[in-house]
Amino acid sequence: MESKTIDIISMGELLIDLIGHEVNTSINQTKDYHRFLGGSPTNVAVNAARLGLQSVLVASFGQDGFGDYAMRKLKANQVITSQIRRLEHLPTSVIFVSKSTETPDFIPYRQADCEIIGEQLPDAVLAQAKIFHTTCFALSKKPAQETILERARAASAMGLQLSIDLNFSERIWPNREEAKAVIKDYLSNNPLVKVSEDDCYRLFAEVKSEDFIFEYFHSFGAQTVCLTKGKKGVVLSDTQEGLITQKAMELNDIKDTTGAGDAFWTGFLYAGLQGYSLTDRITIAQKLAAIKLQNVGRLPENIDIRSLLHVH
Length: 312
Known about the structure:
The protein is 34% helix and 23% strand. It is of the alpha/beta class.
């Protein structure tokens, strides 16, 4: 078997996050915003590159100042940008986010982010990769939705490990029934699934038991489902290995929760590539999320991966 030159392909939304400068203030009351490169697949692509992985982002943005800023940031972080599409007729998507130590409030202005087309990810590039990752947000609008579902099937046929962050929000995807049908389609490729308690509450429009949540996603074909519960820790259900529960890490100085889930999941995927057990993957994921929670915006420079990987 030829050696794969790409560790992870992240396909989906590239956004400019304008994060409020005042902590725990509503958007109504926030005066100042600081800009950050955002979008869950973009965060995963950047985080993966910072962990030393070969990381490709497949995304679309505008021929504008925000697009220039995004490209500059991606290149500075060594993300492979060859599969990104720049659009002349639509501006880069922007999201205003309240800075929060809980679940942030947001207002999306979506333009170029969902204009992802099949030509952006040829088979030759896909065949070089180990992991194909996307999000619920990315699947919420066409043409990206159709492109990602089609490329996911191709990736699965080529033997890639698929992955998805089910970051559902009814504000992004008002049609829940369509969302469930699309999620079911993607999950038939047996991806690793990350979903938070908040995501589940939004997707089902009510509180569901952990048993219900796991059974629901397993029934569509996902073997491994990781449920993150914030301060209540993590529960992972694997159809072969059963349930694995881990407490949250004790953190005193949480500065910004935006992107913490992406840091967690990048750690999980990274540890999987290194051959760690599911339990150790969760531990490494939690360590990376802890670093993110203590920093505003993205992960800090020069993460000491060796200390992260010291799991015992």
